[in-house]
Amino acid sequence: MEIGEILQRHGFGFKKKYGQNFLTDGNLLRAIVSDAGVGEDTVVLEIGAGAGALTRALAERAKRVLSFEIDRTLRPVLAETLAGCENAEIVFRDFSRCDLAALEKELGEYVVVANLPYYITTPVVMRFVEEAQNCRGITVMVQEEVAERFAAQAGSPAYGAVTAAIARRGTCEITRKVPRTMFVPRPNVDSAVVRILFEEDRLPVKDPAKYRAVVRAAFVSRRKTLENNLMQAFGLSRVQARAVLAEEGVPEGARGETLTPEQFASLADRLSELLP
Fold this sequence. Notes:
Largest sheet: 7 strands, mixed
Number of domains: 2
Helix content: 40-55%
Order of helices and strands: HEHEHEHEHEHEHHEEEHHHH
Number of helices: 12
Shape: elongated
Number of strands: 9
Structural class: alpha/beta
Strand order of the largest sheet: 4-3-2-5-6-9-7
CATH architecture of the largest domain: 3-Layer(aba) Sandwich
Low-confidence stretches: none
Strand content: 15-25%
Radius of gyration: 21 Å
């Protein structure tokens, strides 16, 4: 199947507003499906079907593929590229506007696999991290810089609030790097495939909202100490903030990026007891 010829035949024009950069290499597509651990019993949710190349590769291995696509002009293209894929369904809607809870009731257990447009990468991933109940994992192609941020270790320059948020729900690894030359049209940056595996009670906390608030506070101003950021975010006095951090074994003058997700969880639990 030559995706370029199909797109040309249907008069398709790439739309920058949708961040459309399609993958066409069969070996790479099959590798992504393999990275995601998709098998004959797997239900897959895809965000951004594009020209359907990844959708078809997923359908060849999965039990069911439900794919969202915002660009309705791709309808005739997808009708051709997915011909014969009876287990693949395309929903022409903006995924960000869908009711995730209702969707999960329909899907049961599922995994997310997608070549995500760069402009929606973090919001989409964070939506599953914060809201999903039945999602068992996310395998997505993202901008390489974002991939490094997702999988960063505490203390590294790439480590931040999104890293700690993901770590509360699961483990994250970069499974492969993908050069910009593999896309049509070619983007200005390289990409990487990231796999997030959700684990039940991986990092149990008393109040997930408090954990999120602590993480946000820690990184709201990276130049400030954690002590100062906690004072500003939670209205603590300096004595209170210093005492809480001392009890958690955090050195005076430490910044947020030095704390592991486990330390954030412990700190959040302590603040849950201290604050209403």
